[in-house]
Amino acid sequence: MFNTKRAIQYPITTLMVFLGIILLGLISFQRLPISLLPDIEFPEITIVTEYKNVSPKEIEHLVSKPIEESVASVSGAKDITSISSEGVSIVKVKFNWGKNMDFAAMEVREKADLIKGSLPQDVKKSIVLKYNPSERPIMSLSLSSSSYNKIQLRDIIKKEIKPFLERIDGVAAVNITGGLIREIKVHIDVARLYANNLSIPEVIDAINYANYNYPAGHINKNKKEYIIRVIGEFQDIGQITDLIIATGDEGNRPIYLKDIASIDDSFREKKSSSHFNGSEDINISIQKEALKNTVTVCSKVLEMTEELNRKFQNKLNVNVIYSQAEFIKSSISNLIIAAVLGGIIAFIVLLFFLQNIKSSSIIIFSIPVSIMVVFILMYIRKISLNMISMGGIAIGIGMLVDNSIVVLESINRKLKGKKKLSDAALEGTGEVKTSVVASTMTSIVVFLPIIFVKGIAGSIFGELAFTISVALFSSLIISLTLIPLLSTFPFKPLEKINLDFLKKWNLLYDRFETFYYELLKKLIPHKKRILLSGPAIIMAGLLLLLIVRKELLPVVDKGEFKIRLEAPAGTTLGDTEKHVFAMESRIMKYRKLIESVYTTIGFNEENLVLNQTEQMKVNKAIINVILKKGVSTKQIISSPLITDTFRLKYIFIKLKAINHRIISPRDLIIHMSKTPYSSFQPP
């Protein structure tokens, strides 16, 4: 691995090895998934159990507490909490970091199944889910239509568009918010019910038994086999009204459903609503599969939306209102540009100091080769290209050239002795080999232990430590093999370049060297003061550490923010919508600053398991404000947009800052927060 002699003796083999590394690195780079942050598996298991139309108090007593007691014996369980809402119980089991969550989920599922028989009969089977922040929606679509009503639009989306999107490679789930769901309502006249000696359970059973297609076996006829089934599902309202519930007292008079009830072709009670730019619409949120490329999935969904617009011929409007890919592409491209600029600046700096194009070119060549090694190992370990891993590569670029500079300068000193290129390369590399290995290992041992850190910090910054460590180790191998080999190639010029701007630089550098020398002469006699200044600086740094703001991740301005609105408990969906419309109308006055505004109110029961939206109720809403390019949230804080939005008659708010919680002592509670990394915070 560190055999310089063999690398020089077999130049073709050595070059082929490194060219192979470059080729594999480029292939790995193309296949690496792209995401905003590393995939983090929180040590938390959620148990969702539905028990419809039951109050929170009964849910807690009949469902939540028995499940809590059952899962308390799971090995490694650190903390158990539950949220009991109307019709649903959500129990969360937290474990220590490092716990294998696949095995933990199996244990929790077994414990939940054991108490199934002791729960009420109508309780649905518990669903056990692992918490994964990467499953948060990566894209949001707005659908509206002037050709279809709300029930038809929702039905078209569910039957035609949702399956269309779910077939896209990388899409894990498609959730629908808003719209109306068709529902046939049977209003029973209690007086007529009792007059016919019937009960409500009898009516329910009669409807359920009639609304069913029954298999009836098969028959053989004319040398063919036919499958038979009895069609019983209702096709129209008339079949429901003419349904026979029972017979009269004498047994010859049928009692129809229309005799004891009225039937309405209506819609289900709304539990959610969605708005886009102040108008009601239907929102589709898309979740991706784990380890899939976010940018690729979003691109495929975008292509599918264009196809849907063509398919429905403008009868249905599909708009992309949010895409995580835009911010990811911008962030990753900025990091790539920073890495490329870092390499260019490194070449210029080397050229100024070494003043030799050959030496500078050889050293810079070591940077992309080292990065290719990093890409290969990232692909093997299934690490995505994200802000953290790319940040590690960008940090490592400045450290990659250190070893190469030391080795090449040692070789150049040997060349001044008029030695052969191969002999100078061997002697020069051998002279500094131990020092280079030692210096690189001391840098690696600083970052490498982070890989073994547990907790969310270890999950996030482990990739940073991995990429830097791999880059440094690969640069060490390159400096002891490839650099000596390239230095033996007899291409010109070997002598230093001679340009006017370098002469001026040399003069400036000589002056700085003289100044530094004179400064050392004055400082060395005062050894005690200099030694005491070190601990003093350390103490000052520790004191500053106490007052510096501490955050898990830096706050990045994505040009968007959220307003979380919470009305008093018991507020209906209609009243919550009134508050939301009032706020949206104020916000929409400032279209010069705003790109779009989309709002979600309440939740759908069918999406409860996927989103675990236990904190979303009909009295809660989230208003998402996306700003135009070039407009930052800092500008928004001081603009009339914020002050006018919250200057409503039923709100009294003291606006502190966009990252702080804003509380109204009257009707509404409003929370505002920046969006960039909110989905990656601990649960």
Provide a concise account of the structure shown.
By secondary structure, this protein is α+β, with helices and mostly antiparallel strands. The protein folds into five domains: 4-31 and 356-488, Multidrug efflux transporter AcrB transmembrane domain (Multidrug efflux transporter AcrB transmembrane fold, Up-down Bundle); 44-131, Multidrug efflux transporter AcrB pore domain (Alpha-Beta Plaits, 2-Layer Sandwich); 135-181 and 270-327, Multidrug efflux transporter AcrB pore domain like (Alpha-Beta Plaits, 2-Layer Sandwich), CATH 3.30.70.1320; 183-267, Multidrug efflux transporter AcrB TolC docking domain, DN and DC subdomains, CATH 3.30.2090.10; 560-680, Alpha-Beta Plaits, CATH 3.30.70.
Structure description:
The protein has 683 residues and is of the alpha+beta class. The protein folds into 5 domains: 4-31 and 356-488, Up-down Bundle (Multidrug efflux transporter AcrB transmembrane fold), CATH 1.20.1640.10; 44-131, 2-Layer Sandwich (Alpha-Beta Plaits); 135-181 and 270-327, Alpha-Beta Plaits (2-Layer Sandwich); 183-267, 2-Layer Sandwich (Multidrug efflux transporter AcrB TolC docking domain, DN and DC subdomains); 560-680, Multidrug efflux transporter AcrB pore domain (Alpha-Beta Plaits, 2-Layer Sandwich), CATH 3.30.70. Helices cover 49% and strands 19% of the residues. It has 21 helices and 20 strands. Strands 5, 6, 13, 14, 15, 16, 17, 18, 19 and 20 form a 10-stranded antiparallel sheet that branches. A 4-stranded antiparallel sheet has the order 2-3-1-4. Strands 7-12 form a two-stranded antiparallel ribbon. A hairpin with a 2-residue loop joins strand 2 and strand 3 (88-95).
